[in-house]
Here is the input.
Amino acid sequence: MQSGSRTKVAVLMLVAAAFLAASGSWPAGAAPVRQVLRVNLDGGEPASLDPPLIDNRAAGTVSKQLFEGLVRLDKDGKVIPGVAERWQVSPDGRVYTFNLRRNARWSNGDPVTAGDFVYSYIRALGPRFGAPLVDNLFFIASAEDFNGGKVTDAAQVGIKAVDDFTLEIRLHTPAAFFLSLLSFFSMMPVNPRADRANPRWKNEAATFVSNGPFRLAQWVHEQRIVLEPNPNYWARDKVRLESIEFTLVTSRTTAYQMFQTGQSDIIDPPTELNARLIAEKRAIIKPQARTYFVRFNNKVSPFTNVNIRKALSLAINREAYTKRVLQGGQISLRGFIPHGLSSGTGDFRKQAGDLYKDGDVVRAREHLQSGLRELGLSSFPQVTMRASAREDTRRIAEFVQAQWRQALRIQVTIEVMEQRAFVAAVRAKDYVVAPFSTGADYDDAANLMGQFKTGDFFNFTQYSNPEYDRLITAADRETNPQRRTQLMIDAEKILIQQDMAIAPMYTNTVVVLQNPKLKNVFRYVVFEDDYREAFFEP
Amino acid sequence: MAAYLARRLFLSLLTFWVIITVTFILMHSIPGDPFASEARISPQALANLRRFYGLDQPLPVQYLKYIFNLLRLDLGRSLRSEVRDINRIIADGLPVSALLGLEALLLAVLGGVTLGILAALGHNRLPDHVSIGTAVVGISVPSFILATLLIDVFAVRLGILPVSQWGTWRHTLLPAFSLALAPLAYLARLTRSSMLEELSQDYVRAATARGLSRARVVVGHTLRNALLPVVTVLGPLSAGILTGSFIIENIFGIPGIGKIFVLSISDRDYPLILAGVVVYSALLLLANFLVDVAYSTLDPRIRVLGGAR
Here is the structure.
């Protein structure tokens, strides 16, 4: 071919390609209505599907479908029977007796017995076992000592199989939320016979034994996990899906493209698209019991002074941040405990109300003047704020820096650190002020309040108020739910309204794109999604 | 030549040992450990976890244990998977990355060298401009933008290729091309300048004067010489592609080893970091060694002069 015609062909091809690209999206082929649910796990390959070894949501989601605990949650988050048919609680709130149903079965046909739960919890508490979230089991009498090696006889731990179908659990202090805690993934049972015969049963689908609505059919590492209904599950008539396929694509952009082409039914979209998806009403938004806040190191000047802390907290306009910067449906906080978390008698945040006014610049300035006067300073000292390079915390740092400059005329410098180095620094209390986040493991405010007690391992804020300690300790022991709620509300008032130990920012949300034909997916504030009763309508 | 290669081999092994040791020291000097996260893991659980992974022992002990296991070809356990040990993780992931890498390498070499030759032969005319244009785009456009664009055009809009993941030959096309474009561009430019240099040499004029056809001259003589710099660069280039691109594997959801290795650093997954360094440096050293062998085959001067370069 001569170069003239070669050029013409090349140009024609370029034009054709341009046309195709510009013509807008072609409709994806109509997907047939098979009851196959395809979910993308944004967190990638789970490290393990063995319940007590799980510490993240992705693995928790898969495990939730595979295993069933003593109880489970209905679509509104209320506790309903799981393996246990019914239960009784002693008047002092310390002893729970569970009557297990007789027809609960493992995927290999074995009956699920009380002894299975005893085995599983003792196994999870083993000091050599390495369970990361084992302290959720510490409500059980002597559990913590057993885990720490102080008690070596497993029979002393407060869990006992009275007979094959009666399980007794003794707590060392009453815990109003203990029942909902039992549906958490750490508390799932494993099959003792399978575990004793082959400790590596959980590594492959062929040897995996579970007792939940689904069984593990296929696990192709780093690629996909396939679940099928468990034929031996006691409530198998509730399961309408034929299978669940989990893909492990960690790029949210690609997950979104999978959703667009109908190759996935549930994905987490890229955060940049949240605003648009929410505005177009295509996204599902759910508050997540995770709160973001700015931590003040209460033992380092100038944050030893309560007026300084109040000044910096009140100067922040959280509404502007959530509505105009984040745009992901997050809810600005005027208290510490995030929205949606239970107080034991209802939604804590609703009951406790607002503890301060958002973006109260006038008051902020007054507090700043008082604070500086009390500290004997003529102007605000040089302060460096440490932040993680991770997007969510870094943005908070940048935002509050601008707010403080605008409202209070103070200049704070930001030092960005790699995520783990940052966490290590905060843990070592090697910071002055830093954005942080914390989440609840189970649906009760008590879960988050312990970290402000004097001397608590997680008290990186170094906050100390004996009155707060007294209230929280009393709440931990209180058996009357209403009184307990009030104690926690009072404690939060001291922490925030009186002392402003930290500057709360917002309650996080989970934004999800879901196939509109998919129904009956149960989502919760703290726990993983439940697909037991999910189905596609035609 | 045997002495030359034996010396290269010994130096490679020494380099390998130094790399491992330096990495070990460096990774333990970074602040933060595998369990430094915002999750509230109790001190007791932390102590148990540390003991479980052998992190409670003094560093020299950990180091010696590691070297001892390495000699037995046991790369240890990763924090990333309780289910597979590192040998298995690599056995699962490396072939995938290698296949993807090989495909990308083939595309890059064939495409790049061809474009480079055409550019040199059509110097300052259309083939040259097209080639340079492609090269500039290939080097400037980041691979993650290219990848997402390709997915958008071919998978979302045209629907002829899958969006992501791994399984059939169709799944390999978009990722291989995304991975190949930058090296392709680089090789095109390298080949072009190398060819141009050769084409201006005296021997070319001499051969043409003696009556050899243009094709004979190009293929038989200049090409062989022009490829020397390309071969040199192929060593590190292959090792880089072959261990997989983090970005491409991440975007396409490909179960390769590249993504895992890069994540291991922020995860502080010490055994996996070391395994990554072991695999990558072994491949790199091997690739360089093969380049040395290729060199001495291609260039008689090296064979004769015994490696003085």
